[in-house]
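Amino Acid Chain and Its Fold in Token Form
===========================================
Structure side: the spatial fold of the chain, written down as a series of whole-number tokens.
Position: the record begins directly beneath this header, with no further notes in between.
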Amino acid sequence: MKKFIKAAVLSVAAAAMVLPTFGTAQAGDDDDLLAAGAVGLVTGALIGTAIGSQPRYYGEPERVYIDPEPEYYEPRPVYRPRPVYRPVYRPVVESYGLEPWTPEWYRYCSQRYRSFDPDSGTFVGYDGRSHFCTAG
């Protein structure tokens, strides 16, 4: 409603400014009256368009509360050392003639292998590993 009232008031004001420019002596000519009406119409249309194209402002928008998303944090991984399983060395004794841990067996293994360890009954092979001495 306010918009219509503004447009009407401004149209009347524009017409009030344009109409007095035409004197009473000119009022007798029909062509001049039509020209004056056309000028008033164009002026009112321009002013009405200018008023109507203004941006509409309805006041401050209503505020709406939006619940924020909860923040989830991944727990840090707990690193634990994995157990290392090593096979227990249990020598497989194949009897080739001499029984292990006998004096003959000790003599045979110490003569055959320079790296023979009499406490464990093993020697170090060319591969760098310990091997149990099997006499035979």
In short: The chain has a mean pLDDT of 77.
